[in-house]
């Protein structure tokens, strides 16, 4: 019963559904719950009361829910929680986040021996001590972030021997007592973000693996945490880093973030001693990096150095030197989101082992020849979301291994005919969201291995035979352009093409010549265009087509022979086409049919294999005829909502023996009490709100909503 406007529930509403396991009442207007409301739901496993207006709960409201495992009360108006959980002996997960709770009665959780997770995020708690969660000995995950906690008492952790994750972020814990975490022997995850912490002692956390201390006031951090693998210290005023962060000899640290720490000096020997360090993030600091900065790191794989003050990659900078080889055993350079506006030729000449280069989200305007000189093993180059207007014709000459190239969301208008001449290994090319108006016939000539080509969201007006040599192409996306003409033979040589998307275009008509040659096409989308006519011979070459989307075109009349050759078609989408009549009897393998939002007043087809039929928003008015005429219908979902239906012969629907889901909402029909008698497989019905409650009591084995 989620997302209704329920404000009141009668106390006996659930008395006839004793076997209910899951009850969802979230996103309603409920303010109060009767103390006997759930008395008959002894088998209930999950109760969701989230996003209501509940201000208080009766002490007895959950008294009979001994099997309940999940209780969700988030996003209500609770201020004080009293002893309401005492009989919830099976409860494992309690979520009371985003309320107004400022205090708990002592012993409130005393009987919750099975509880493993508590989430109290975003409330008004000011302190916690050992009595707060007393009795929850098996607790594994505790979240108390975004409260107003100023103090945690030293005895807080004594009962939490099984706690794995503790989330205390965004509280005002400027001082934390040294022994506060002493009993948390199994703790692996500790979150203390944004707590205004100035100093902290964590040496007792012998098993902690991930530690989040970002956004605090720490000026010094040095701990003996031998099993720690991830450490987040970003946004702390460390200033100078000349001491060991991890004092144990055998550090397990793999990830370190010291970004935005106002660092003017780092003793890199301190970091080199972290022999397992793989990822280092140090963006937006003030120190100067030497040419040998990253030499000597044993395991370092990637470095985040995308600081806002680095605007140029120039020869002689630390980027260009041999230490880039040491940056990554995974062979990755990620300098995205940097503000880069220029790459000087030869800057990457020492990067002979790099496989992936990410330059996305910068301010690059042009890419010059020799920009990637030396990157002979580069396989992935990402340059999305820059301001690139020009690419030198031989810019990719030095990247013979390039497989994956992304140039989405730039300002490219033209591509030189020889731009990809040396990119013979290219498999994936993305040029979406640029300003390309036309393409040279030779531009893709050497891309014989290309499988995926994205030209979407450009300004193309005509598709010509420019794909002739793409003998491996499987996917072409030319959607959201201004294409009004697709020339004959455009796809003639594309024997391997599987998917073509040309939706959101200006195409007026299509015939068999347009897609001639694309014999193996499986999915075709030409929706949201201006198609008024499809010639009857259109389907002749599409014997392998399984998905066809022609939605949102003006196809008021579709010739009967149009679908004759679609022998393998499984999904057909004709939403919003102004169709009045249609013959689909030749589609013997069709599974999904969407005819939503058309002008159909009569529909009766012999479609044995169809499982999903969407006829909603059609003026059917009276349903007295079989929708599926075959004796052995496979139909499982039928949507006839918003069809102006005044009458339904329910025997017509009962004959659909596999029907599981029926949608008939927003129709003026008056339903009798026996409307849903005799349905063999029906499990779910969507109908008018005023009918829901009546049929729930009449047919408890069917879900009505």
From TrEMBL:
Gene3D superfamilies: Ribonuclease Inhibitor. The keyword Cell inner membrane does not apply. PANTHER family: IG(IMMUNOGLOBULIN) AND LRR(LEUCINE RICH REPEAT) DOMAINS, LEUCINE RICH REPEAT CONTAINING 53. The keyword Transmembrane does not apply. The lineage of its organism: Eukaryota, Metazoa, Spiralia, Gnathifera, Rotifera. Keywords: Leucine-rich repeat, Repeat. This is Uncharacterized protein. Pfam families: LRR_1, LRR_5, LRR_8. SMART domains: LRR_SD22, LRR_TYP.
